[in-house]
Design a protein that fits this description.
single chain, 324 residues, Rossmann fold, eight-stranded mixed sheet, 11 helices
Length: 324
């Protein structure tokens, strides 16, 4: 009789464990589709509570649209398609100077954005004599890809775009500029071997690592220790479906290997990527570096809040590096 009871308890316990594992898997699978898989991310963006930032961006872009269009209409417009290391077709648009330019910038957009969203930055660089290349990151816009790589696989794509510029002129100085996930992508690229003509990096509100960012957001939403089980389950699913572990996507580790001068920018009131992350990145970086914190700026809107002061800080840094 005792043996039977023990057997029933054992089977029940195993059944309970199986149900728990199944629920964890289904939840992690849901999170993967919600956050990483390529699909409509409107629901996820709603959870991030960025309405104030989005309103500011829309208002500023509407106000500046005529100026941006006026500046960029004089550019030679080009489109580029290349194949990534894993055979995705990647797209970028370019604004090129009519006269022979002596410098170029690659501008990388953020999560759930595309190259069009970065025309405000393209306008500033073009006014300052740069050729401008704006890629659509994999899983975004006109580029291929079934998932969003959070900057990790994008780092190789950034290197490919650098080579496109080098094919035009191998001696032309190149600047890498990224915002949010785009900032993480250029920092992750900086830990790899970049062409010698890449002179500096401008990162605006990038995160230390993908897993740090996920933990930060999950802790705000769920407030339970179970989130760590879910995140590590998501890690496994991400490795199977997207080919990388979340913990690999670390700008913090990559910047430890970077020797390219880097300007770190961040909004003081950023509630999506906490300002602490930029201090961690800055302290950890071993390259020549500078940091600028923009007061009263939320996530991804430092350029709109800082305006002339922001761009002066950017171009002061850039000009020092490309004239060395």
């Amino acid at each position: 009789m005792k043996v039977k009871v023990k057997k029933i308890i054992g089977i029940s316990f195993l059944g309970f464990i199986a149900v728990v594992i199944r629920e964890i898997y289904l939840t992690a699978d849901y999170l993967y589709n919600f956050v990483i898989a390529r699909n409509d991310k409107l629901k996820y963006k709603g959870l991030l509570n960025l309405s104030a930032e989005e309103k500011l961006v829309k208002r500023e872009l509407k106000k500046e649209k005529d100026k941006i269009d006026y500046v960029l209409k004089s550019a030679l417009k080009k489109e580029f398609y290349i194949k990534s290391f894993d055979n995705n077709v990647l797209y970028a648009k370019g604004y090129f100077q009519n006269t022979l330019a002596e410098k170029s910038v690659i501008i990388v957009h953020g999560y759930c954005q595309d190259s069009e969203s970065m025309d405000y930055a393209a306008c500033e660089f073009f006014k300052n004599g740069f050729n401008v290349l704006l890629p659509d990151c994999r899983g975004h816009g006109k580029s291929g890809g079934k998932y969003i790589a959070m900057g990790w696989h994008d780092r190789f794509d950034v290197i490919l775009w650098c080579r496109i510029i080098s094919e035009i002129n191998s001696n032309m100085p190149v600047v890498l500029y990224g915002v949010s996930m785009g900032a993480a992508a250029v920092m992750m690229a900086a830990g790899e071997k970049l062409p010698n003509n890449v002179k500096c990096i401008i990162e605006d509100c990038g995160y230390t690592s993908c897993i740090d960012e996920f933990k930060y957001q999950a802790e705000k939403i769920y407030r339970t220790n179970l989130i760590y089980v879910l995140i590590y389950s998501l890690e496994i699913i991400c490795r199977i479906r997207a080919g990388f572990f979340l913990h690999q996507a670390s700008a913090f580790k990559q910047m430890k290997k970077c020797r390219i001068p880097t300007l770190f920018l961040h909004g003081e009131d950023d509630m999506l990527v906490p300002v602490k992350m930029v201090y961690d990145l800055y302290t950890n970086a071993v390259c020549s570096k500078d940091i600028y914190i923009i007061k009263n700026a939320g996530h991804g809107v430092s350029a709109m809040v800082g305006k002339e002061k922001y761009w002066k800080r950017v171009f002061d840094f850039v000009n020092r590096q490309i004239t060395k």
